[in-house]
């Protein structure tokens, strides 16, 4: 909502404490309203903390950014959630954090880990397993309430199970997702079909959908085997990666598979033959607008998740670019 000077003065006069804060920062007055990023029935969210590159990534800061940006839903990755709940600090290996984007897009290529790094990873994984198996769900419910009270729903929780994890850790992943209020557990598409089969068994047990995310290995048939293994194995479609993989049928794929799509990552990338680069929205070959309009027309209920991967231009930052992406989506759905 946009306020005129007269409306702003009238609102300020009705609340002296709020008016005092607004005099120095009028944006705080508008921030009193809860965010709402549903446009004509299409829910636009953001994946956190990944999209907020080079910014604080604790759960409280992420919530502040989303409220400021007017975003009312998120697929949240495990680290800030587990940190909030008291998990051991994340392992930081020499070489720095994962870059925001790589030339041509897709997952980054890291140097082969040293024996010392492998040992550190194993030790950290053991510590995380020990913590997870004793973690109480009350802290995750507390996080859910904090987000919900601010107007943000956690619809997805991202954690990557492995075959090395005990069965109880699989249960943990699904239990956390449910405690957060999520309707889906998301993860990268495993290469091992035995793992998707096992995940599917736990998904069936917990009656919670799993959305598998693919990069430029994505083909129209990439999810077929996993979906055949369990009715709860689904698609966390990334239409940017799907387009950069050389597929020209993203909208048709959505139409055909909408019943098994749990959520859809939104980014703009060029076709493979055009270089595959990540681009600001509207400058690549990904049919973002057409996909959003299809969701609106057919009343699809899965969220469209902003995933910022292009590098912000000079003078901008990831939060400003996420706001631009949200405005693009809103305009596309007008």
The strand order across the widest sheet is 2-3-4-5-6-7-8-11
**Order of SSEs, N→C?**
HHHEEHEHHHEHEHEHEHHEEEHEH
CATH class label? Alpha Beta
Beta-strand portion reads 5-15%
Detailed description of the structure:
With 334 residues, the protein is an alpha/beta fold. The protein has a single domain, classed as TIM Barrel. The chain has 14 helices and eleven strands. The strands form two sheets. It has an eight-stranded parallel barrel, surrounded by six helices. It has a two-stranded antiparallel ribbon with strand order 9-10. Strand 9 (268-269) and strand 10 form a beta hairpin. Helix 8 packs across helix 9. The longest helix is centred in the middle third of the chain and has 18 residues, at 115-132. The chain is globular, with a radius of gyration of 21 Å. The two termini are 15 Å apart. Mean pLDDT is 88; it is low at 1-31 and 94-106.
Helix and strand arrangement:
Elements: H1 5-13, H2 16-24, H3 27-30, E1 38-39, E2 42-48, H4 59-69, E3 73-77, H5 78-84, H6 115-132, H7 138-150, E4 153-158, H8 167-179, E5 184-188, H9 193-206, E6 209-213, H10 224-229, E7 233-238, H11 239-244, H12 250-257, E8 261-266, E9 268-269, E10 278-279, H13 288-298, E11 304-306, H14 318-332
Parallel strand pairs: 2-3, 2-11, 3-4, 4-5, 5-6, 6-7, 7-8, 8-11
Antiparallel strand pairs: 1-2, 9-10
């Amino acid at each position: 909502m946009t306020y005129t000077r007269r409306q702003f003065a009238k609102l300020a006069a009705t609340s002296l404490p709020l008016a005092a804060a607004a005099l120095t920062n009028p944006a705080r007055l508008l921030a009193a309203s809860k965010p709402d990023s549903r446009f004509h029935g299409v829910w636009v969210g953001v994946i956190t903390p990944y999209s907020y590159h080079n910014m604080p990534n604790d759960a409280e800061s992420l919530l502040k950014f989303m409220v400021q940006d007017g975003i009312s839903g998120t697929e949240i990755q495990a680290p800030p959630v587990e940190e909030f709940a008291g998990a051991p600090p994340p392992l930081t290996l020499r070489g720095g954090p994962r870059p925001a984007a790589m030339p041509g897009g897709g997952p980054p290529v890291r140097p082969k880990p040293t024996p010392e790094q492998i040992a550190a990873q194993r030790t950290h994984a053991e510590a995380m397993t020990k913590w997870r198996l004793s973690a109480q769900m009350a802290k995750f419910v507390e996080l859910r309430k904090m987000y919900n009270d601010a107007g943000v729903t956690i619809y997805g929780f991202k954690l990557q199970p492995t075959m090395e994890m005990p069965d109880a850790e699989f249960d943990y992943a699904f239990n956390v997702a449910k405690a957060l209020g999520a309707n889906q557990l998301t993860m990268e598409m495993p290469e091992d079909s035995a793992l998707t089969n096992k995940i599917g068994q736990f998904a069936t047990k917990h009656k919670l959908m799993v959305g598998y995310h693919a990069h430029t290995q994505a083909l129209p048939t990439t999810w077929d085997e996993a979906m055949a293994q369990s009715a709860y194995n689904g698609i966390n479609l990334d239409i940017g990666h799907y387009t950069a993989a050389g597929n020209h049928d993203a909208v048709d794929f959505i139409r055909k598979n909408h019943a098994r799509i749990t959520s859809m990552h939104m980014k703009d990338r060029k076709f493979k033959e055009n270089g595959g680069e990540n681009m600001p929205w509207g400058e690549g070959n990904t049919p973002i607008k057409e996909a959003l309009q299809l969701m609106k027309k057919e009343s699809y209920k899965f969220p469209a998740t902003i995933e910022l991967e292009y590098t912000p231009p000079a003078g901008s930052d990831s939060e400003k670019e996420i706001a631009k992406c949200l405005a693009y989506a809103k305009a596309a759905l007008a």
